Prior knowledge:
- It contains 7 helices and 10 strands.
- It is of the alpha+beta class.
- The longest helix is centred in the middle third of the chain and has 37 residues, at 158-194.
- The two termini are 30 Å apart.
Amino acid sequence: MTEGPRVAKARYLYAIASTREKQSIGNIGIDESAVYTIPFKSISAVVHSCEPRPYETRDRALAEGWILEHSYVIDQAMKLFGTVLPFSFDVIVRGDDSTIEGWLCRNYDRLASELQRVEGRAEYSVEIYYDYDQLAEEALRENQELRELASRIEKEPKGRAYMLKRTLDQKLKEIVASEARRQVDRAISQIKSLADEAKVETKRSQPPEKYRDKRLIGSYSCLVHTDSVNKLGDVLEEINALSGFAVRFTGPWAPFSFVKLGDAA
Length: 265
């Protein structure tokens, strides 16, 4: 665990926001640090004062708490200032407020342009799940060929029944996979028409309990304008209402996946 008081010889960066005002946001930062803005022209850095060393600990609960506090500050900054350019956890710049002002000055054009690009937009997460057993049952019920194959399995000798069962299982997998892919392709097409940007997510996190008996077939991060959020929600609800499918739609978040800061330094 980090020991000793943190001396204000550095600044912890949470986000860049569109505001000209220097203001206190409150003791809402990591370890209840006082969060405030450091302005330069039309933009400001959202920071707290800290010692110039990383937030490191072997205490997993403490580390997770720090990350949640970091995210909370960014969420509050979005409520105050609109869309922000978020920093990942533990970005610390050695120096004082004037150091941050100098950094904002050197990178002003890039930061201001990026803020303008994502203005009025937020990041949303879309995860599409399907229930294999439910879709397989429906395919078996609706497909005469599969019903006849299932009926034969009950009448054949053990060895022959085993081979027929493997054939049936393979056909069911193909039909279910085809239907799942059809719905995902439909979703992707509509997501792309409503989102400014969309990215396939390859990282898999533990889903909430209600989704754990289902299979994830598509996971996307989307940058969506406020005007398009309800339309996207309606499209996803149509898929969510389909038998055997479930959609997890979360946000708004700061646009972590879409901010392009390049080599700002």
